[in-house]
Design goal:
Blueprint: E1 3-9, H1 15-34, E2 38-41, E3 51-57, H2 61-66, E4 70-75, E5 88-95, E6 110-115, E7 131-136, E8 141-145, H3 151-174, H4 178-189, E9 195-198, E10 203-204
Parallel strand pairs: 4-9
Antiparallel strand pairs: 1-3, 1-5, 2-3, 4-5, 6-7, 7-8, 9-10
Length: about 200
């Protein structure tokens, strides 16, 4: 069965954009359900998350992802600052990178360790040692996945999270100059958004 992992991110946006990330994922889940696609957040996400991973499975998931990849605009008042004048908030959606697409990552450099899940977690948080920590030995960078039911699934997500970390580091290196940061912000906020939602119910505009 076809499966795609989408990465929804607030980028360098404020808390409002992080708030949009979680609710956009919920909106995508409803849209996917209407199309008879399976769609779920694959790691525990808070009400305000800088980013999250969303798994979309089923026939037509490629089209579903393509129609939502790019800049998403949400129109609404800040849920945190009642007098804030800004009404347009932007987040980015893209396909999560494949582990093999990150040259710096070699599977031989990754150490996997089974650990016990901690914290409240998501609805499928483990009560056993099936959670996994993946550590990139050369750099010491690590990630943890604890929300999947099996150790194998958590290992896969932990690898993907490492790939995301390295991809984001690469993007930050490319945008270190003021011009680069300006261009990055301009592309996100002033680019042609692929979808626009409005209000706290995230109605597609």
């Amino acid at each position: 069965m076809n499966n795609i992992i989408l990465h929804i991110t607030a980028g360098q946006g404020p808390k409002e954009c992080q708030w949009v990330v979680f609710r956009l994922a919920e909106a995508f889940r409803k849209e996917a359900s209407a199309l008879r696609l399976s769609c779920e957040i694959i790691h525990d996400a808070k009400e305000a998350s800088a980013s999250l991973l969303l798994s979309v499975t089923g026939k037509g998931c490629e089209t579903f992802a393509a129609e939502r990849t790019g800049t998403i605009r949400w129109i609404g008042e800040s849920p945190f600052r009642s007098r804030h004048k800004r009404k347009n908030w932007y987040v980015g959606v893209k396909r999560a990178p494949d582990f093999d697409d990150i040259p710096k990552l070699q599977d031989g450099d990754i150490k996997y360790q089974a650990i016990r899940a901690s914290g409240p977690g998501g609805q499928h948080v483990n009560k056993t040692d099936s959670a996994v920590r993946a550590t990139h030995i050369p750099t010491g960078v690590s990630s943890i996945s604890q929300d999947q039911r099996s150790q194998f699934a958590n290992k896969k997500i932990a690898r993907m999270k490492l790939a995301l970390i390295f991809e984001e580091q690469k993007e930050m290196e490319l945008s270190r100059s003021k011009q680069g940061l300006w261009q990055q912000s301009r592309e996100l906020e002033k680019g042609n958004e692929v979808r626009c939602y409005e209000g706290h119910k995230f109605k597609l505009k």
